[in-house]
């Protein structure tokens, strides 16, 4: 990773830690959630419905899963952590920061290639090997979607040929913004993010044989285990009502 990218991540991690330290000791009537950036739209809707039904405030903080995981390692103490990768959650499990019995898969996703122009001459990854353009992807070191995208390229033997085309982004929202604005012609992210914008078009989708299985684990952390409201919201995330909202945004559930 470039030095500037590492500096940006360190600054964001410090900010996350500061935010959650200021929230320590807050009422059980507040729930603090750290969640992957690709959950921003759907989790905002789920939280809004829950708040309307219970009157309990849900405070959401979004960033790449790797950045959030790093923040938790450095002392951030949310009630609930929602990751876009089992890898990041497993790293917390190995350190004892998450207990296995309080973590399980919430939803699943799929990696796609998107274009700004629906009539793009590029219809698959192999088409851009000799093209003079940039391909926006999340930083594979911190953004699960970027790692899954890289695995697709590796499965097709294209990772080395496309490496010089990468525009490395801090999260999937930045990938989407670059392509939706037309500043970058192509990007790789989750299907659900592509579905959230009318300005981009899906031109190729990849199955789990190429990308790997894309699961979003959810976990109750130490503070959440002492917060009855957080425990109730955690259960709600797996309810039929919440599941219908996730599916409406394009996510797959374990029952599908």
Question: Which labels suit this protein?
Answer:
256 residues, D-Maltodextrin-Binding Protein, domain 2, six-stranded mixed β-sheet, disordered N terminus
Structure description:
The protein is an alpha/beta fold and 256 residues long. The protein has 2 domains: 146 residues, 3-Layer(aba) Sandwich (D-Maltodextrin-Binding Protein, domain 2), CATH 3.40.190; 101 residues, 3-Layer(aba) Sandwich (D-Maltodextrin-Binding Protein, domain 2). The chain is 41% helix and 21% strand. The chain has 11 helices and 11 strands. The strands form 2 sheets. Strands 2-1-3-10-4-11 form a 6-stranded mixed beta sheet. The protein has a 5-stranded mixed beta sheet with strand order 7-6-8-5-9, sandwiched between helices. Helix 1 packs across helix 3 and helix 3 runs parallel beside helix 4.
CATH architecture of the largest domain: 3-Layer(aba) Sandwich
Number of domains: 2
Q: Could you give the distance between the termini? A: 37 Å
Low-confidence stretches: 1-26
CATH topology of the largest domain: D-Maltodextrin-Binding Protein, domain 2
